[in-house]
Write a structure and sequence with these properties.
- This protein is an alpha/beta fold.
- The chain contains twelve helices and eight strands.
- An eight-stranded parallel barrel has the order 1-2-3-4-5-6-7-8, surrounded by six helices.
- The relative contact order is 0.15.
- The protein binds zinc ion (ZN).
- The site of zinc ion (ZN) has 8 residues, from loops.
Amino acid sequence: MPSSVEIVEVGPRDGLQSWPDFVATADKIALIDRLADAGLRHFEASSFVSSRAVPQLADATSVLDGVRRRAGMRLSVLVPNLRGAEDAIAARADALVMFVSASESHNLKNVNRPRDGSLEGFRDIAAAARARGVPLHGAIATAFGCPFEGEVPVSEVVRIARHYADLGVRRITLGDTTGMATPRLVRERMRALRTELLDLPVALHFHNTRGMGLVNVAAGLEAGAAHFESAIGGLGGCPFAPGATGNVCTEDLVHFLHEEGVATGLDLDALIETARWFEGVLGAPLPGQVAKAGPRLARSDPGAVATATG
Ligand code: ZN
């Protein structure tokens, strides 16, 4: 088990892309700035996909422009094609994330082309990124199961991962798009990628759709994963996947990791405060639990709690 892990905050992208209302650009920037104050350094800040498909993230350039850049900070963005990659590079993105689904029907729904068409298009993105010295990451959606096809063979995940490795990505993310991961699948996929890709880091991106998020994190940790993606307050979902709900919640994840003695470099109290503040911004409650209950050793004043009478 690693003694420390890196957390990538994906709330500004994965969380907000499916939020029913457009969140003001200034609020997105303030969210990233506050999370950076809490110690987060790596963000999936936005997405350069078509603003017709995802109007919630149409302000990607302004978000990248507005965030106060700090030492060691990396703002990565999703890019679907060469045009998106060029726009992202022009907007000073620190890393480009390519994405494809491990299952054919989800890829068709998500980006309207077959998987091999997506993989083919990555060559141009990779060439543009290489020419400008911008790091590349590769994300694999539906890596633990597909809402349309059911089980996804581990061989498909490995095939795509190998393709990414050939393109020179620095990290591969396994995305549990609709919360279908289980600890058994996490162990199996981590083992297969370890064997195939040796030391290329693998990040785990779980959704808490079926309440399995932190259990899967535990399995990932034991399998040697040292990078996890999560969203403040448990924001999140995928507009093109039925039933997809929130990401693993950042402050719940940090609470769990710290209790396990795994360092994150993050300030849990500041994360909780940020989650509560952002609920106010959205005007809606978020699913995270530690922001409601407080850390496990947070004490209540006995005088402030009603005495049971029954
Ligand atoms: Zn996601």
